[in-house]
Amino acid sequence: MEKPMSRFSFKFMSLEFKIRDLLYPREKILAEAGIVEGDVVLDFGCGPGSYTIPAAEMVGKGGKVYAIDIHPLAIESVSKRAEKRNLKNITTKKTGRATGLPDGAVDIVLLYDILHHLEKPREILAELARVLKPEGVLSVSDHHLKEEAIIEKITESGRFCLEREGKRIIQFKKRKR
Question: Could you tell me the domains of the chain?
């Protein structure tokens, strides 16, 4: 089982993200990921909701965002922020691996700023592939890893192939079985 960071570390990270998000809004990254109104998005390792909240606004009332994290403070933070903005299209879940979502339910999975933390990435990638629609997209960004390392970690599972490298993200398609 993946282990959550300490409460202190989470709160410090959240403060860092607030400052980062003010200076560099996350919407540009999400636009590059191709999120559109009506999409179903999974923000895996959602943290305090830096991507969850703008993604929920982008998908609109006809879309859905699932925010999943192992840390209880992450779920609490996202829930409070969603309530404050009156966003009804966000569902949160505290979990380390199993999303609880049905097969093929998601258009886009966001794996942002979390890949370097994963103890067993192959198991998580298997779960993400399972919940993605056949033409679904895995969008990855992790400033702690070089692009080559990200591509290797994602493609070595055999579940995803590289679709494109963007300015801020790397997109993968689910490999056809």
Answer: 7-174 (3.40.50.150)
